[in-house]
Design a protein that fits this description.
107 residues, alpha+beta, 4 strands, four-stranded antiparallel beta sheet
Length: 107
């Protein structure tokens, strides 16, 4: 798959990440490229770093700071999957679920 096609596939995958983690990544900012320092997708073909797959690194802003999700692209299955997330993102998701659990218990 060409890097341009993989970039488009990575853009399309944002919706899956948002659904999986319950976050809003501002898809429009990735597409517009108005804030490339804050909202970008990096394709890294250094396969050794991503369990033998092509790396896709999403960088975006959330309330707590700069979040980063590292994914791998499995070309044999034609799928993108999450490998790791930075601490800013992990804490954001954990805090969000704590608030949700608290509200559910109160109801």
């Amino acid at each position: 798959m060409s890097e341009l096609n993989l970039y488009q596939k990575a853009l399309n995958h944002i919706e899956n990440i948002e659904y999986e983690y319950g976050v809003h990544m501002d898809y429009e900012e990735f597409v517009s490229k108005r804030l490339p320092s804050y909202y970008n997708i990096q394709i890294d073909n250094t396969n050794n770093n991503y369990q033998g797959h092509v790396g896709i690194i999403y960088t975006f802003e959330i309330e707590e700071g700069s979040a980063q999700i590292t994914c791998g692209y499995d070309k044999n299955r034609n799928e993108i999957f999450t490998l790791e997330c930075n601490d800013v993102f992990k804490n954001h998701v954990e805090d969000k679920w704590k608030i949700y659990d608290y509200k559910v218990k109160d109801d």
